[in-house]
Amino acid sequence: MNSIRKLVISMVAAAGLIAAVNVQAQSGPAPHIPRGMPNVATQQQQDEALALVAAYLRAWSAEDPSSYTVEQFVSDDAVFEHPYADEASRRLEGPDAIAQALSKTRLAASNWNFTGLRLFQTLEPGVFFVEYRASAYVPATQHKYESRYVARVTVRDGKISNYLELWEREAMATAFGATGSAR
Known about the structure:
The protein has helices at residues 2-20, 43-61, 95-108, 169-176; strands at residues 74-81, 91-93, 110-121, 127-138, 143-156, 159-167. By secondary structure, the protein is α+β, with helices and mostly antiparallel strands. It has one domain (2-176): Nuclear Transport Factor 2, Chain: A (Roll). A hairpin with a 4-residue loop joins strand 4 (127-138) and strand 5. The two termini are 27 Å apart. Residues 4-29 have low confidence and may be disordered.
């Protein structure tokens, strides 16, 4: 129960930070540290986390998916959680399951584009929040998908070990169809 409480508090805090910060004010994907918050992560750790998330997003839009193997940026015991996804994709354990889900979603849409990647520190070493926007074309419905994402990312030993991702459910449902899940 304590870990659930921590997750909820962290998600609320991140949402508040995101809402309070003017997105237009930052020109690049620089890590964001709110005024008065101690700098828990080193600049190297922040850069590493940002690079890992960027690599994960590049895998979505790569013309040659084999050029970005999941093992490059995901630990052997990684867990990816998608609370808004279909039952089969809500909790993915290990690189193979994560790679299969990535492949499935890449087939459901094309021309993936990710913008505005921003990193936010937490008070936990190795735990960050990221925010970004995604867009893609969905051939099955002939709709363009556009959504804002927020994710909690845990980095351990230079790889993503946990990734919990939230998106705009209505945007997903409109673009991908009634179930609202491309995952």
